[in-house]
Amino acid sequence: MECTISTMGCNASADYSKHKYNETAIKATVLIQRWYRCKRAQLEVRRRYSLTIFESIEYADEQEQTQLSNFFTFMLEHRVHRGEVAHTSSGSHVSPDADSYVIEYEKIDVPDSYRGPRLSFPLNIAHAKALLNALKNRQLLHPRYVLQLLHETRRLLKEKPNITHVSVSYFKEITICGDLHGNLDDLLLVFHKNGLPSEINPYVFNGDFVDRGKNSMEILIILFVFLLIYPNDFHLNRGNHEDYILNMKYGFTKEVLKKYKVHGMTILYHLRDIFSWLPLATLVNNKVLIVHGGISDTTDLDSLNLLERNKLKTLMKLPKLETDRKNQVKIQGIPLGYPELSQWSSHPELTEEERKQVLDILWSDPKKQHGCNLNRRRGAGCCFGPDTTEQLLKKYNLKMLIRSHEFKLNGYDLTHDGKVITIFSASNYYEEGSNRGAYIRMNPDLVPRFVQYQVCTSTGKRKNWERVKTIEQSALQTLQERIFVHKQKLMDTFAKYDCNNTGRISVSDWAAVMESVLQLKLPWRTLKSRLVKTDPDGNVDYMSCFYYMDTARPMHQVQPTLVETLCKYRKDLQVIFNIIDEDESGLISPDEFRKTWKIFSSYLGIHSHDEAIDKLAQSIDYNKDGYIDFSEFLEAFHVVRKLENKAA
Amino acid sequence: MMGRAGICKDGVIAEIEKKITEAFEVFDRDGNENVDVREIGSIVRSLGCFPTEAELHELLAKVEEEEPTGYVHLEKFLPVMTKILLDRSYRPIPEDVLLHAFEALDEKKSGYITKEELVKHMTEEGVDTPSSSNPVAFMSAYRLEHFPGEPFTEEEMEEMLSSALDPETNAVHYRDYISMMIVDETDDLPQ
How far is the C-alpha of A272 from the C-alpha of A80, rounded, in Å? Predict the structure, then answer.
């Protein structure tokens, strides 16, 4: 195809000039179309690899999370004991009984000045509509009603079996929704498109209602309200995020504590119990199995049906606490310095086999290849192949498996020859414009119909390329943080490939190092131009990627590896400090900081000298009043992209 | 281990193949080395090529299965795409050529194209010409081997307008538009 526009030679036709113009116009048009289609495709590719970045880092993150879960459990337990909820005199850690619930919410006064929705039980559809309206307008439901709602919800959930059986008829199609992750707008959009729940409009919500999004609490309130109004036609499955350990890292705990400053901990405490009472699976017409994650080659529905699901408050392994002769409580041999915990006993748990059954249901992912192996990507559950699916469907005479748990660009996906469906209902999950959400409508033919949607934010219809740029920048920011955190290891590995110390290595070697050190399978050659400088002869200046990033507040006087560690665990430290900070002042004393850091770092096996920590504490005591504003402190460890080329 | 720039031919081809595989994998969501045939266009373009729709169809004919399954396998795509990159086919369009193209549509040379004019050009199916009765004359007159139009779908048109159209004048000021789109590319690090 020629690139240039030129007029052609003379042709003595009467409408030559018109022809001449038309030919030029056509060629020009085709050229512009060709150019535009290319731009558009390149934009789509940028969006795709940005999502790949987000996904890879998300799963790598989840894997690391399981390590710290023990530590968080301990910290939260400690706070609960010291703080608000005083239960039985024995001090042992048991589930709150019905009496303590009633006493709690009844004691709470609702002032006249409260303009939000007031609930009365039993709830009806009018309450639900009023509530939807109020929550849509970002009003907060009063904690008294929240606690009362939780009390009633728990009472109802206790009666439900582990596997809910549901029938679908021609007058009663069923709707199945996947992960919502705190996206209230998506839930409202689904209700708008598909109608509110009712006896003739049943719903199944397949877990992961909370974490990540900003309105997890509101979603739970709405779901529980409909559950109470239509107990036979509204069904919830537990997801892996209905777990107080994950909630501490992925945002739900923080959201609740922020919205409910006085009663937040109580609400969380009761929710921990309620999550464990959520049913594990739903079976439609005895043919379609709906679980949050997936299955494994050892999945046994009979076993699942019988186990005591409420004993699994968390699916993460709890720490083994030891008490020594001096009645000092230790965790992994490290004294904790919190003597009051000596009375703490761990939760009564299920057998390892039972725990595995539930873990597999809530954490597994399907894979293309045959076989069933441990899910290393997530650190929990399995990866199950089409043969595993076939085996299970045959064993229980089922037609298909519907699950969620994985991000899907179009809101849904089919695999294993259409026998496994993934349904994901959180649109714009990573960023505005990142993906669609979807839900399933099913009639007695058990043929799923998919409905897709995407929430448009009120900030007006942004241009596509602007949205893609935002997504891309956000993804690159996340990636750079990870690169920064692994700086030392990266530099060491690069050096091995660069024997002559030229500061340059081949593209091939650079890509190999990035992938192996960061443990992320990404299109490195495509991303290269965004991350490093390349020479005219095609070699990569591997140090250049570090020139463009630094912590928000440069910390030259601090040990670099310490800085890296603080960047890596920034979010985790926030969680810990929040827990310590009982008066919610946002400040901690240098002593508490040192003590906590010591426990944390010894738990992780990080060695840093006391002087390094002290120096750090001093350098961040900006007001010089002896207290550390820990949010400000942690902000300093945000990895940012610098615009000018600054020598490292 | 010494890092080398791929100076020998094998090295160059190996690098190209890796680059193609990477781009392919961005669209291969299942990890089983095939992609939906409709994504091939995006993959080719992400590798810096600017084919027309017609050229893309030609390419697809080479990489599709004998019995079209709707999927394209990496093993078929790789050699075809490697050759395209080595031959430097479907080169990008220089900025000045693009500008000339827009100017060609701007009859009055006013510096802008109205929304109606642009839509008409981009979405027109064929060409309004009296010599359609004489196909030979028609073809030779336009010196085109393929059907002249590659019209935009409604979606493509809407998208282009959303970034190109100045809402105040309801026209496309093409010089500004081109500058904007070119700048957008340079999110790369300063080289």
Answer: 12
Reported residue count of chain B is: 191
More reliable by pLDDT, A80 or A549: A549
What average pLDDT does the segment A147-161 reach?
Answer: 95
| pLDDT for res A645 | 39
Mean pLDDT of A71-81: 56
Looking at residue A366, its pLDDT comes to 95
Assess whether A228 and A341 both reside in one domain.
Answer: yes
**Residue A383 and residue A365 in contact, taking contact as beta carbons nearer than 8 Å:** yes
Report DSSP state, residue B2. Answer: B
Whether B140 has a pLDDT exceeding 60, the answer reads: no
Q: Given this model, what pLDDT does residue A95 score?
A: 44
As a whole number of Å, the end-to-end CA separation of chain A is: 48
What pLDDT score was predicted for residue A556?
64
Burial-class residue A194 by CB neighbours within 10 Å (0-12, 13-18, 19+): middle
The reply to whether A88 falls in a domain is: yes
Q: What is the domain partition of chain B in residue ranges?
A: 4-86, 95-181
Pick the CATH number of B4-86 from 1.10.238.10, 2.170.190.11, 2.60.120.560, 2.60.120.10: 1.10.238.10
Chain B partners within 8 Å of A13 (Cβ): 131, 141
Q: Do A19 and B6 touch (CB under 8 A)?
A: no
- Cis check for the bond before A122: say yes or no (omega within 30 of 0): yes
Which of A164-178, A605-619, B63-77 has the weakest average pLDDT?
Answer: A605-619
Same-domain status, A300 and A158: yes
Contact between chains at B15 and A508 (C-beta distance less than 8 A): yes
pLDDT digits (tens, 9 = 90+) for A365-401: 999 889 999 988 787 899 999 999 999 999 999 999 9
**Residues contacting residue A624 through CB under 8 Å, at least 6 positions apart:** none
pLDDT digit string, tens, across residues A177-220: 999 999 999 999 999 999 999 999 999 999 999 999 999 999 99
Q: Is the distance from CB of A435 to CB of A408 less than 8 angstroms?
A: yes
Using a CB-CB cut-off of 8 Å, the residues of chain B touching A5 are 97, 100-101, 104
* pLDDT score at A73: 60
Q: What is the mean pLDDT of residues A127-149?
A: 93
**Do B53 and A500 make contact, defined as CB atoms within 8 angstroms?**
no
Binary contact (B191, A19; C-beta < 8 A): no
Q: Please tell me the pTM assigned to this model.
A: 0.75
Q: Looking at residue A343, what DSSP letter applies?
A: G
Task: State the complex-level ipTM.
Answer: 0.82
Per-residue pLDDT, A62: 65
> Which residues in chain B are contacts of A44 at CB distance < 8 A?
42
Structural domain of residue A632, as residue ranges? 548-648
- Which chain B residues are Cβ-neighbours of A40 within 8 angstroms? 156, 159
Contact predicate A232/A200, CB 8 Å: no
Go through chain A and tell me how many residues it has. Answer: 648
Tell me which residue in A25, A511, A529 faces B188 most closely, judged by beta carbons. Answer: A529
Contact call for A472 and B5, based on CB within 8 A: no
A299 confidence band (pLDDT: 50, 70, 90):
very high
Q: Is A492 on the interface with B (CB under 8 A)?
A: no
| Mean pLDDT confidence for A277-293 | 97
CATH number assigned to the domain with residue range B95-181, chosen from the 4 options 3.40.50, 1.10.8, 1.25.40, 1.10.238: 1.10.238
Ordered DSSP codes for A105-149 = HHH----TT--S----SS--HHHHHHHHHHHHTTPPPPHHHHHHH
What string of DSSP letters covers A526-571? HHHHHH-EE-TTS-EETTHHHHTEEESS--TTS-HHHHHHHHHTHH
A292 catalytic per annotation: no
Best A8, A10, A33, A470 member to test B by mutation, with max B CBs in 10 Å, is: A33
Of residues A127, A151, A241, A416, which has the active-site annotation? A241
